[in-house]
Amino acid sequence: MKIKTSIFKEIIESPAPPPEVGGIIGGKEDIITCYFADKGSKENCYDSYYPSTDLLNKQIDKWQDDGIDFYGIYHTHFAGDDGLSSSDRRYIVNIMQAMPSQIQYLYFPIVFKNNMLIYKAIRENNIVKIVQEDIEII
After folding, report:
1. What is the CATH number of domain 2-137?
2. Looking at the whole model, is its pTM more than 0.70?
3. Span 18-59, pLDDT tens digits
4. Which of 23, 107, 135, 138 is placed for a possible disulfide with 72 were both Cys, Cβ 3.0 to 4.6 Å?
5. Its domain of life (predicted)?
6. Phi-psi group of 80: left, alpha or beta (phi > 0 → left; psi -120 to 50 → alpha; rest → beta)
């Protein structure tokens, strides 16, 4: 995943959990050039992030009007918790299955203090595969 330096820095400086927080990432030509931080829904708890889907969908629509592509969803994890949980994986699969067919992949970064780990969900023949992806800060 390619991401602009300024966006990378802003995202990794997200508030540290608890609770977990997140948002969406967007850009152009396969480069992350913007993000939108979400405060989450009121169901957020100590170790989970529940996105405000209505708010995020409105932002995705605005981005689309501005020529910005939606590239995925990020959220914070506690230090040392660098893997996707089973609920993270289910959520990613559900999102990919709900996406229009022209969207073949999305990114799902996990954010820690001063770093992020990138997961990429790829849809091939109605099967969603989740792989770890390198990050390129540009």
Report:
1. 3.40.140.10
2. yes
3. 677 899 999 999 999 999 998 776 665 666 787 889 999 999
4. 107
5. Bacteria
6. left
| Distance (Å, whole) CA 17 – CA 40 | 13
- Say if residues 109 and 11 touch (Cβ distance below 8 Å): yes
Residue 20 and residue 75 in contact, taking contact as beta carbons nearer than 8 Å: yes
Tell me how far apart the alpha carbons of residues 4 and 102 are, in angstroms, rounded to a whole number: 25
The three-state secondary structure class of 122 is strand
Name the nearest CA neighbour of 96 among 123, 125, 60: 123
Amino acid identity for residue 102 in this structure: Q
Q: Which residues pair with 28 in a beta bridge?
A: 31
